[in-house]
Amino acid sequence: MMEKDKPLEEQYEQAKHEVIEAIAQTMDLYGVNHTFGTLYGVMYFEEKEMTLEEMQQKMNMSKSNMSYAIRSLLSSQMVTKLDKKQVRKDQYIAETDFFKVFQNFFGNKLQREIDVMSLAIDEAIGAWSSIILSPDASEELRSLCLQDMFKLQEAKAYYEWLQRFVNHLQDGTLFQLLPTDASESSGQPK
To answer: Which domain of life is it from (predicted)?
Structure first.
C-alpha cells in the first residue's frame, strides 16, 4: 500500500481486530475457548487457505496448541480441512457463512445434549418403573419414583421438541420458517 494509505490501513486493521475480538468473546459465551475463537476470527478474514504454520505465525501459538485449536474448530465444523495439500502440509479454511456456522455448531451441541439427556431419562424411567412394580418397595419410595417420573415425562417432552428443532435446523427447513435475506428464495442458508 502507498504511504498516504498508512493511517487508513491502521484504521482498517483496528476495525478488523475489533471484529475478531468480538467473535472470540461471542464464542467464549458458548463454551469455545477464547483463543480458538480468535483463530476462527483470523481465518474468517483470510482470503485463502491456511496451513498450521501460517496460523502459528499469525497467532503466535505453539504447534501443539494450534493443532488442538484447529481440531476443536474442525469438530464444530467452523473450519474445513481441504483435500489438497500445499507442500505436504494440510490446509484449512474457515466457514464464513454465519448461518452455516450456526446450523453446524448449535445443531451438534444440541444433538449431544439431546442424546445424553434422553438416555439418562429413559434409563431413570426404566429403573423407577421397576422399583414401582417391585413388591419390596415401600409406598414412600414408590411415591417418590412416581413423582420424579412425572417430572421426567415433562423433560422428555421438551427433548422430543428439541429434537424436532434440531432436525429442522440441520436439514435447513428452519430457514424456511425463519428466512434470512440470503435464504428467502431457496429455503437454505446461502
So the answer is: Bacteria
